[in-house]
Design a protein that fits this description.
By secondary structure, the protein is an alpha/beta fold. It has a single domain, classed as Rossmann fold. It is built from 7 helices and 10 strands. It has a 6-stranded mixed sheet, sandwiched between helices. It has a 4-stranded antiparallel sheet with strand order 2-1-4-5, with helices on one face. The longest helix is centred in the C-terminal third of the chain and has 18 residues, at 177-194.
C-alpha cells in the first residue's frame, strides 16, 4: 500500500551565529492510510517543524517529502496552498477561529476555496458538526463557546473538506483533562469513520495514550518508532 506521506533523508537547518543548527536531521518516515500516529518529544525536539514540513507549511533544507506518491518539497507557494486546501486539515492548539464569524461561517471558509455549491457546503458543514456533537452551536460565535467547544469546532473545520491527512499540533495544550479526553475520543471516532490519517505533534501523555504509533524525536533525530 502506498504511503500517504513519505519523508526521505530530510534535514532542516537554521543559521545560528556562523554555524547551521540542525532542527531535524536524517529523518526517514512513512505514514500509511488511516494511521493514528504521533510525533512526540520534549520542547525543541523538532516535532512541530517536522509536522509543518509534512503539511507544506515549511520547507526542508535537504531531503524529500512525498504526498500520495507526489514529491511536494519543491512546490511553489501557490501549489502548496492548493495542496493544503484540498488534501490536508490542520488543528492547532490556539483554535484559530475567526471571532467575528459564526461556527457555520468558520467551517464554510475552507469550502468556499473549493468552489462548492451552497447545498453541498451546508451538507458538509452539518455532517462535520454532527461528528463533533455541536450541531446546536451552528449559529454561535467563538466567544459564546467554551475552550473545549472551540477545539471541537476546529476539528470540524479541519474535517469539513474530508481531507486525506489531519495534522494536529498540540491539540490539547489549552484544555483541561476532561475536555482533552473528549477531544481525543472525538478524533479517534472520526479516524475510524473516515479513514483519514491523523498525525499529532505532542508531549501530552493523554494524547500519547490514544496513539497507535509513537515516533519519538530527540534533538532533531528519530530515537524510537513504536507501533501498538
Amino acid at each position: 500500500m502506498e504511503p500517504v506521506i513519505a519523508v526521505s533523508n530530510l534535514d532542516k537547518t537554521f543559521p545560528v551565529a556562523n554555524e547551521d543548527f540542525f532542527a531535524l536531521q536524517n529523518i526517514d518516515l512513512q505514514f500509511a492510510p488511516g494511521e493514528f500516529s504521533g510525533i512526540v518529544g520534549p520542547s525543541g525536539s523538532g516535532k512541530t517543524t517536522l509536522l509543518n514540513i509534512m503539511g507544506s507549511l515549511d520547507k526542508a533544507t535537504n531531503g524529500k517529502v512525498y504526498f500520495m506518491g507526489d514529491e511536494i518539497t519543491s512546490l511553489s507557494a501557490k501549489e502548496s496552498a492548493q495542496l493544503r486546501s484540498r488534501k490536508i486539515g490542520f488543528i492547532f492548539q490556539t483554535y484559530n477561529l475567526l471571532p467575528v464569524y459564526t461556527v457555520y461561517e468558520n467551517l464554510e471558509l475552507p469550502l468556499i476555496l473549493l468552489g462548492m455549491s451552497t447545498a453541498d457546503k451546508k451538507q458538509a458543514i452539518m455532517e462535520s458538526l454532527e461528528w463533533v456533537g455541536l450541531t446546536d452551536k451552528v449559529n454561535s460565535k467563538p466567544a459564546q463557546l467554551s475552550g473545549g467547544q472551540c477545539q471541537r469546532v476546529a476539528i470540524a473545520r479541519a474535517m469539513v473538506k474530508k481531507p486525506t491527512v489531519i495534522l494536529a499540533d498540540e491539540p490539547t495544550a489549552n484544555l483541561d483533562s476532561e475536555n482533552s479526553h473528549i477531544i481525543l475520543k472525538t478524533m479517534k471516532k472520526i479516524n475510524d469513520a473516515s479513514g483519514s490519517t491523523f498525525i499529532f505533534s505532542t508531549h501530552d501523555d493523554k494524547v500519547i495514550g490514544y496513539l497507535k504509533r509513537k515516533i519519538t524525536l530527540v534533538d532533531g533525530g528519530i530515537q524510537q518508532d513504536e507501533t501498538f
